[in-house]
């Protein structure tokens, strides 16, 4: 394959891991809040779309002109956009030297293959719109037009002002062909869309287990760890300024107690769990007492304090990337060359931290109900709140008295905050006189009449 096409692909492959890492927490928050679960297929579909979008964008801007190149002098013709439709067809005819032969028009015609690649550029976008979003042809066409217009404007503005002049041509034919490619991708994805299960159906299957997903709690813990780290910095700065240097050591314990004991006692959950639509409750659904919350925080504190320290180091390095180079030079290189035994000892604390955190994660994954030591010892559980796509109980076709004992609805204990468990299918009320059963049934089961003996 031509290096012109390989270079954007390699560039996207190098940028994607960093982009995926930066997107993980925001993506997880959106998916858990909207769908209640982050299945492998939804994550694979989403990140596959992100990688494709990054590759397509690199196709439109890479290779970049070298800094020494004056793009205004090197590409003077690109300063004026090509706004006449049909020029691409004329270019194909010119490249064929006016010979109506397969070899001249197709096989050895660079203008023809350029248009083919323009069709293929946004063809996966149409497939993605139909498979992932389950949208129609109009949505796929609109997405193709909008994306192609963004690409063309990026080229026309010289990468949005990064270059003084454009180094690629804005062509209306590219806009037309790209949009047609997205529509074509939607059309050819029909058989695949009909054969694959919908992502919402896979979400419902995962939610049917009734367990709070481990990843959902992990993302909430990541948010809590980041939040308590920042709060400890603020408390430390305030106490250092007002009370002196000796009070700085109390910053982390104070922030830890405030974040994991006081706030959950007052609001029902830590800030991270509020973001992920989780709440803390006792097994009977009541709000946990401060003693239970303190015990939970105490059991969770060893790995969490280590995670807070690691988070602080990461935030410090993110604020000043050169700090990582300084640490590597001072601690690793010099110590390793001067005293290898000391360098080995420096590696023990990080290894111990990782081992302790891994042991906690392993204990959670091995527990039958996916509970950690801090949950089993304190008796506090995570309860999910309805996500935005949660199935709601169907409204009865005829008005009924809520006090009617023949109508059954899912209820929560009255002595504490209500806990709503959302099954894979919406619950509907059934009367005792229907089918001889009182309770809640799914629409599929309620629609099947009972088998009567002969």
Describe it.
By secondary structure, the chain is mainly α. The chain has helices at 3-35, 40-61, 71-74, 87-95, 102-107, 110-131, 137-156, 158-161, 172-188, 190-195, 199-207, 214-242, 251-267, 271-275, 290-319, 322-338, 340-366, 373-378, 443-446; strands spanning 278-281, 381-384, 428-430, 439-441. The protein is built from 19 helices and 4 strands. Helix 2 packs antiparallel against helix 6 (110-131), helix 6 packs across helix 7 and helix 13 (251-267) crosses helix 15 (290-319). The radius of gyration is 30 Å and the shape is globular.
List the helices and strands and how they pair.
Layout: H1 3-35, H2 40-61, H3 71-74, H4 87-95, H5 102-107, H6 110-131, H7 137-156, H8 158-161, H9 172-188, H10 190-195, H11 199-207, H12 214-242, H13 251-267, H14 271-275, E1 278-281, H15 290-319, H16 322-338, H17 340-366, H18 373-378, E2 381-384, E3 428-430, E4 439-441, H19 443-446
Antiparallel strand pairs: 1-2, 3-4
Helix pairs in contact: 1-2, 1-12, 2-6, 4-6, 6-7, 6-9, 7-9, 12-13, 12-15, 13-15, 15-17, 16-17
């Amino acid at each position: 394959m031509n290096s012109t096409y390989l270079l954007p692909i390699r560039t996207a492959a190098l940028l994607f891991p960093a982009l995926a890492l930066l997107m993980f927490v925001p993506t997880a928050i959106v998916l858990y809040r909207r769908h209640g679960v982050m299945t492998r297929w939804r994550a694979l579909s989403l990140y596959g779309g992100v990688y494709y979008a990054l590759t397509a964008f690199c196709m439109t801007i890479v290779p970049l002109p070298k800094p020494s190149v004056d793009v205004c002098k090197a590409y003077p013709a690109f300063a004026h956009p090509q706004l006449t439709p049909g020029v691409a067809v004329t270019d194909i005819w010119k490249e064929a030297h006016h010979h109506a032969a397969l070899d001249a028009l197709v096989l050895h015609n660079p203008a023809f293959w350029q248009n083919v690649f323009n069709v293929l550029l946004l063809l996966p976008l149409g497939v993605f719109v139909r498979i992932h979003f389950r949208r129609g042809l109009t949505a796929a066409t609109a997405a193709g037009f909008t994306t192609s217009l963004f690409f063309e404007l990026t080229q026309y503005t010289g990468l949005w002002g990064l270059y003084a002049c454009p180094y690629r041509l804005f062509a209306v034919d590219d806009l037309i062909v790209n949009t047609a490619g997205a529509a074509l991708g939607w059309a050819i994805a029909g058989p695949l869309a009909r054969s694959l299960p919908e992502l919402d159906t896979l979400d419902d299957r995962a939610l049917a287990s009734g367990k709070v997903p481990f990843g959902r709690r992990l993302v909430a813990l990541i948010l809590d760890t980041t939040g308590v780290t920042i709060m400890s910095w603020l408390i430390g700065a305030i106490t250092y300024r007002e009370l002196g240097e000796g009070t700085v050591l109390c910053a982390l314990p104070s922030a830890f107690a405030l974040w994991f004991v006081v706030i959950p006692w007052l609001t029902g959950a830590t800030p991270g769990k509020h973001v992920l639509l989780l709440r803390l409750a006792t097994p009977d659904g009541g709000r946990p007492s401060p003693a239970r919350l303190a015990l939970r925080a105490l059991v969770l504190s060893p790995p969490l304090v280590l995670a807070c320290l690691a988070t602080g180091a990461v935030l410090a390095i993110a604020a000043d990337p050169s700090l990582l180079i300084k640490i590597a030079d001072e601690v690793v290189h010099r110590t390793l060359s001067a005293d290898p035994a000391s360098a080995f000892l420096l590696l023990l604390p990080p290894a111990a931290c990782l081992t302790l955190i891994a042991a906690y994660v392993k204990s959670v994954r091995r527990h039958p109900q996916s509970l950690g030591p801090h949950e089993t010892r304190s008796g506090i559980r995570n309860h999910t709140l309805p996500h935005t796509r949660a199935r709601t109980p169907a409204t009865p076709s005829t008005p009924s008295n809520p006090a009617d004992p023949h109508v059954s609805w899912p209820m929560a204990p009255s002595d504490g905050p209500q806990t709503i468990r959302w099954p894979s299918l919406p619950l509907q009320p059934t009367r005792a006189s229907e089918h001889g059963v009182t309770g809640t049934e799914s629409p599929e089961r309620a629609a099947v009449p009972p088998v009567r003996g002969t």
